[in-house]
Amino acid sequence: MNTIPLTVRGAEKLKEELHRLKTVERHSVIQAIAEARAQGDLSENAEYEAAKDKQGFIEGRILEIEGKLAAAQIIDPKTLNAEGRVVFGSTVSLEEEETGAKVSYQIVGDDEADLKLGLVSISSPIARALIGKEVGDVAEVRAPGGTKSYEIVDVQYV
Fold first, then answer.
1. Count of domains for the chain
2. pLDDT computed for residue 85 by the predictor
3. 4-7 and 146-156 strand pairing
4. Are strands 4-7 and 72-75 parallel, antiparallel or unpaired?
5. Structural domain span for residue 39
6. pTM to 2 decimals?
């Protein structure tokens, strides 16, 4: 089984979701199924079908999260000593060479990625272009919008 890289924060979010699914969502859907059964004929009971569908989704998501956590390699960026290189979990400050625009991204696991929060997936084009580079290096990023060049201004492990 392949390992799935996760930051500490990403693993905690998955654990919280798993706990909520098991303790809140699972119980509420069981109650909804019981209430729908009490209404009688199940063959034409839309509430029963909807509750069963939701139960299937919840159970599937529980299995998915448990699998991810079992295969997770949890990486704490604060403990990394990558000697200034860009690695999984590092936060990278960049300057686009053409426009001078400055951006900052943390490289995280696929499940944690949220561009609005500055979290980019390890499998994204920008992360793949940055991995292994150091401050002062230029990364060529091939994205759907074309190729852009970014100079690495700073690398932090926070």
1. 2
2. 93
3. unpaired
4. parallel
5. 4-75
6. 0.81
Contacts of 157 (CB under 8 A, 6+ apart): 77, 78, 79, 80, 81, 82, 89, 90, 91
Instruction: Report the interhelical angle of 26-38 vs 46-71 (nearest 10°).
Output: 160
- Phi then psi for residue 100, to 5 deg, are 80, 5
Same domain flag for 152 and 87: yes
Greatest C-alpha distance within the chain: 70
Strand, coil or helix: 22: helix
Same domain, 63 and 94: no
Q: Per-residue pLDDT for 130 more than 80?
A: yes
Among 75, 101, 132, identify where a domain stops: 75
> 32: how many CB neighbours lie within 10 A of its CB?
17
